[in-house]
Design a protein that fits this description.
This protein has 373 residues and is α+β, with helices and mostly antiparallel strands. The protein is built from nine helices and 16 strands. It has three domains: 4-144 and 245-282, FAD/NAD(P)-binding domain, CATH 3.50.50; 151-244; 289-365, no CATH class. Strands 6-5-13-14-15-12-16 form a seven-stranded mixed β-sheet, sandwiched between helices. Strands 8-2-1-11-10-9 form a six-stranded mixed β-sheet, with helices on one face. The longest helix has 19 residues, at 289-307. The model has no long low-confidence stretch (mean pLDDT 94). The structure holds flavin-adenine dinucleotide (FAD). The site of flavin-adenine dinucleotide (FAD) has 33 residues, from helix 1, strand 2, strand 3, strand 16 and helix 4.
Length: 373
């Protein structure tokens, strides 16, 4: 039996990025996924400075130099943001040379002496029966939905730019023109260009347990856009978003959402998976102690979001986006420097009204959202 250097369970953005980079480094690779050729449809985006150098420029559909956060006022962010061309991203993570198996991994086994090779190898068991050993097995199967996990939800429509004359790109727009009562769970508008001709307008529930349902988000989006002069016809292409914000496990043998690379307070993981693929392949530790500490702090951030009274969310983000860009970046993207993350959180805390601080302090000491599966 041929034993590969690397066996990857899951062909989402994380598994595919890892497989692609492993092939580029000359490894033999098998990827198992129930549907390895499934075309990705989500609109993925990231901060430009998070992307690895090896990523092809044609994977970027749009770059926005100064996205806007509308909190209680308009704030321009001094940090370029990119929206991926999802099909181009998937194609650029070329898997020519990998063995693709259409199957489901039902078990991953720790290294054990393997009969045919005589080596201590990890292995997987496929739903169809076979057991496959490999030099290394990486779990990139994502995180299944569960009632216990906080989720992000969103409902979006894609419209022609001519119908959306606003030239701002809204990373978050918390204005209260979506018809929701101020005491109901909040949602914001995410509005980004997809290319020169189209924009995605998405009503987003950042984090909820349970998160807002998609019907509510659709109705809010319709109300919001109507109040800005746009009536939807119902024929616009849509994007539906629902995924767990946490639940992965920090581990040297897991990657992507399954490996806790998703930022639990934002839901972003794609850029982190792209940028960490080479390190994992090189055998570098991707979960040194500082990264584990940052992960815990980020989970405290998710607890805060889940605890804050709905009317306070715009105030919270107003304080956050008023922080220096370096502090915003430390919290949103830096996974290796707990001091920077903690300092950003402390500055944010200090900038908030007392009432909001009290709610946050309670959240920080509660143990509602565990960082592990
Ligand atoms: C609509 C939408 C928009 C998003 N936008 C962004 C964004 O802008 N930026 C960002 O960073 N993140 C975004 N996210 C969140 C997150 O980054 C994505 O969910 C991302 O796809 C996670 O990648 P992943 O490869 O870790 O996991 P997944 O994408 O969940 O991939 C897991 C793969 O494993 C396979 N699999 C599952 N079970 C098995 C099994 N038993 N055996 C073998 N294979 C299995 C699945 O078929 C799948 O292909 C978005 C999510 C959604 C849904």
């Amino acid at each position: 039996m041929v034993t590969d250097d690397l066996l990857i369970c899951g062909a989402g953005p994380a598994g595919r990025a890892l497989a692609h980079r492993a092939l580029a480094h000359g490894l033999t690779v098998t990827v198992v996924d129930p549907n390895p050729h499934r075309r990705w449809t989500p609109t993925y985006a990231a901060w430009s400075d998070e992307l690895p150098d090896w990523l092809k420029p044609n994977t970027i559909a749009a770059t926005v130099d100064r996205p806007v956060a509308w909190t209680t006022r308009r704030i321009e962010l001094d940090r370029p943001y990119v929206v991926f061309d999802t099909p181009a991203l998937q194609d650029s993570l070329d898997l020519s040379g990998a063995r693709l198996l259409q199957d489901r991994v039902v078990e991953i086994t720790r290294p054990a002496r393997h009969r045919t090779t005589g080596l201590d190898l990890p292995s997987i068991r496929l739903a169809s029966g076979p057991i496959l050993p490999a030099g290394r097995v990486i779990d990139a199967r994502g995180v299944p939905r569960s009632r216990a996990l906080a989720e992000q939800t969103a409902f979006g429509v894609i419209v022609d730019r001519t119908r959306w004359p606003d030239t701002d790109t809204y990373f978050m727009d918390w204005r209260d023109d979506n018809g929701a009562d101020p005491n109901e769970p909040r949602s914001f508008l995410y509005a980004v260009p997809l290319n020169d001709n189209q924009v995605l307008l998405e009503e987003t529930c950042l984090a909820g347990r349970p998160a807002l349902d998609l019907t509510t988000l659709r109705d809010r989006l319709h109300t919001r856009l109507r109040s800005r002069g746009i009536t939807l016809t119902g024929t616009e292409p849509t994007e539906r978003v629902r995924f767990p914000l946490h639940g992965g496990k920090p581990s040297p043998s897991a990657f992507g959402a399954a490996g806790a690379l998703m930022h639990p307070a934002t839901g972003y993981s794609v850029a982190t998976s792209l940028s960490l693929a080479d390190a994992l392949i090189a055998g570098d530790p991707i979960w040194p102690l500082p990264a584990r500490a940052v992960n815990l702090l980020r989970h405290a951030g998710l607890r805060a979001l889940l605890t804050l009274p709905p009317p306070d969310l715009p105030l919270f983000f107003d304080a956050f986006f008023t922080l220096p860009t370096a502090s915003q970046r430390a919290y949103l993207s830096d996974r290796d420097h707990p001091r920077g993350t903690a300092a950003a959180m402390a500055s944010l805390f200090a900038a908030l009204p007392w009432r909001v601080r009290r709610a946050l302090a309670t959240a920080m000491v509660s143990r509602g959202v565990a960082p592990t599966r």
